Amino acid sequence: MTRRSLLRLLALFVILAVIFAALARWVPVRTDLSFIFPDDASSDTELLMGQLQQGPAAGVILIALAEAPTGDLVALSNDLAKRLIESGRFDFVTNGTVTTGRESLGALFDKRYLLNPPVTPEMFTVTGLRDALETGLADLTTSIGAARKELFAADPTSRLDQVMAAWSDAGPRAGLGGLWMSEAGDKAWLTVRLAAGEVDLTRQSHAVETIETAFAEAVEGLGNSARDVTLTITGPSVFAVRTSELIRAEMQLLTVASSIAVAVLLLLAFRSIALLLIVALPLGLGVAVGMVAVRLGFGEIHGITLAFGGVLIGIAIVYPLHLMSHSRAPTGLPTAIQGVWQTLFLGMATTVVAFLPMTLSSFRGLAQLGVFAISGLVVAFIATRWLLPRLIPEAVAPPIGAWSRIGLPDRWRRQGRLAVIAIAVLAVPYLWTQGPALWEGDLRNLSPTPPAARAVDRDLRREMGAADVRYLVVIRQPTMESVLQQSEAFLPRLDSLVEAGDAAGFQTAAAFLPSDAAQAARQEILPDAPALRRNLAAASEGLPFDPAIFEPFVASVIASKDGLAVTPGDFEGTGLDGQLKALLFQQGEDWIGLIVPLGLKAPEKLAALVRAENNPALAFWDLKAASETVVAGYRREAALWLGLGGLLGLVVLLVALRSGRRVAAVILPIGLSLLLTAAILSLMGTAFSLFHLLSMLLVMGVGLDYSLFFNRQEESPDDVLRTLRANVFCAMTSVTVFAILAFSQIPVLHSIGATVSLGAALSLVFAYLFAAPPARSVS
Amino acid sequence: MLVLMLALALGLGAVVPLSATADDDITLMKILDLVSQDSPRRVAFAEERHLSFLTEPLRLSGELAFDPPDRLERVVLRPKKEIMEIEGDLLSLRTLPTDPSIRVRLADYPALQAMATALRGLLAGNQAVLSDAFQVTPSGTAENWSLRLEPLSGPVRAEIAHMELTGVAGQVQSLEIFEAAGDRTRITFQSLN
């Protein structure tokens, strides 16, 4: 290659780098679940998507401390809780004793008689007050009672404790009323919640960092005995941070490893590193144009589209490799392209036509992917056909002498074909009998979180009795007030579940925020000031109280009775704000209230209770089942569009090859490799997800090119070897890169890697075995 | 000169009686020796809490046990049952022996910490524990002594003004706690049997 060509090539790469830098700013990348959801924008779909990624538990992080003496764990837990509260990064922090905001209820303190549990007229009669005062007096002799003696005059009936008890999340049972700790004293637990609203990765990673730093400082403060103490943190935010760290680290490693592997391979093939650039150019241009096309068509690109689009454009590595392999001195690329472009064009056109139906999908992500792959492949072809031969006309591949020794005798190829068909005949009934077990329905298994991290999360949730939001009761109403009233009407029905031990409790907005109607009823019940003072005086008779000390109590009752009702705004700064917003929110025209069961053991009983209400405003949701339905719908639609695309591709091949036998020779190996790839993966215990399906697209694309080249009419025996060389290196490149990807700990990357490396290898072998090129015309 | 003489005389007057009665007066070491040798490990107690907003004191009673070097168990039997265990910096509370414990860090409750430190230091005969936490002023005789303890640390002083321990030879008789806010608690001890 001449210096001028190399400089031209490098200049083009600089331009490409600038284009990518610009694209990174211009194309918004979306990373939520919308890739997998249909574009029908029904309010239920929107709510489901919201709950799956930002439900009431989204901002919650669970923390466990272990491996230290009980005393140290207590000290650490309190110290850590204080540090986390002081950090200001969390809406809410608690370890059972040290808790955000609960000591400063603000406006809510004076309105506590409007909150839950409901007040009754009996509470304010002489008898009721007398009972409360006697209990309060006895409580003062206990350590806990003594600790709140400053509050006694303002709250002699312990109303604050009743309200707090109604609010408390069902924490770990062993620690109720105190520090969250295992009964054996060998574990201490805390939970924190990020502030409500959009939870982004930056804030999540700051939160995780804050916890880790605070923990390290707290351990430092304790000295030697706590040296071995362990910190476990889990929750959606932790997953997001850890996964993105893992993806970044793995991507670096995998990129370096596969770049080296590809470079070594191409060096073996063409004995020139500069040629690596030639191979990369059409791919780079394809990805850039794919991004532009999706940006223009959709206004944004989904992260999964970008990743998969990049992978699919990998099909185009075939184009420059064939071009290079067929070049020879002295004519170089301009002659080589004349020999290969028609086959390349047929491969590209068939693939593009096969992807066309996908662009019509109601799943936005799938449609984006179609547009991305089609525009990228067309551009990669154009770059190979017209740009490369002009840019570096003198590039040539080394002679193909050694390749003449490679090849199988016809007899072996025949036996190979029979063996493959025999195995395929077995694979069909095997896959058929697997039925639905073939498919991965659980959306959570598509998440990039490593299974080990999910196991830690599941265990900790069980130990702590924390909410694992799979089941929900959704209340949809036109106003906030009617959501709260519906909740209040329904909640008492749930008591039977708690009494039977089928659920530990329920989280819902109405527990914190009674409806206006309920509050008005409580205001009616509360006594006026003269009546309360009179009853207090009578109740204090014979007890060691001067009734005058209870004036702050009288003031609170009157403030509740005559003041404004409690509104969601009153919860700001109390640590309950975030939870309230997660459980009660507006969606479009509607208000949504959620009832989240804690420690639910009998979901079918909850479903039955909801059904028995026969109330259209109430719905029982199983997020797992709902997401499975979405995933299955996705799969059905993807399969439909892909099947339709396959038929269209077949039409293209029939028109171009004009022979049913030749078309069969081209598509049979592709079909067989897809079939056997599926059977082998399934035998290895893989359940197929959408990502396997998309990976199969890539296998189809490269398999088609191998097949078309093996089946084409060659000009000379040397050209046969050049085609063989190109196909072998194409396959080796794909297999190497994707085999490296198969080592990833991230399930999605692993499944793409395993599918494509296996499929590409089988495609090459089968295309070779089944190739039936037309006899060279004797001219 | 006259002023100086007067000051000297007053100063001497304050010192001389002390040194003159050194034989029958008491030192902290002496009290600790007596108590740590003779004091029973388990005693009954009666407590009176004088709270500003009550016209009569609260009364409670129960048993107190000490297990060297630093474990205290305080069982309130009347009027409401409560078991408190203090070991190291850990405080556990239960209503019944079979209940799950509420555990807190002693350092977070300065008033309880002061009481625990005073009792642990005294019963274990550990002078350093007492003098690290309090300014200790002994008075009286071996047959009838008292210790005035003034907390040194800020958080404790914010709650506890001072405490007063009294005893007869090796028997601790009472602990009186004077809170900064004016409330006062008096605990008297009696041997069990």
Would you tell me the overall average pLDDT of chain A? 85
User: Which runs of chain B of at least 5 residues are low in confidence (pLDDT < 50)?
Assistant: 1-23
Given the helix and strand composition of chain B, which structural class is it? alpha+beta
Structural domain tally of chain B = 1
Annotated CATH architecture of one domain in chain A: Up-down Bundle
CATH topology of one domain in chain A: Multidrug efflux transporter AcrB transmembrane fold
Order of strands, widest sheet of chain B = 6-5-4-3-2-1-11-10-9-8-7
Helix/strand/pairing category of chain A: alpha+beta
Describe this protein's structure.
- The complex is a heterodimer of chains A (779) and B (193).
- In chain A, 61% of the residues lie in helices and 7% in strands.
- Chain A has 29 helices and 11 strands.
- In chain A, the strands form 3 sheets. In chain A, strands 7, 8, 9, 10 and 11 form a 5-stranded antiparallel sheet that branches. Chain A has a 4-stranded antiparallel sheet with strand order 3-4-2-5, with helices on both faces. In chain A, strands 1-6 form a two-stranded parallel ribbon.
- In chain A, β9 (584-587) and β10 (590-598) form a beta hairpin.
- In chain A, α27 (690-710) runs parallel beside α29 (747-770).
- The longest helix of chain A is centred in the first third of the chain and has 35 residues, at 236-270.
- Chain A is elongated and about 120 Å long.
- Chain B has one domain (23-51, 60-191): Lipoprotein localisation LolA/LolB/LppX (outer membrane lipoprotein receptor (LolB), chain A).
- In chain B, α3 (110-124) packs antiparallel against α4 (127-133).
- Chain B has an 11-stranded antiparallel sheet.
- Chain B is of the alpha+beta class and 193 residues long.
- The chains are: A alpha+beta (779), B alpha+beta (193).
- The interface between A and B is medium-sized, with 33 and 29 residues.
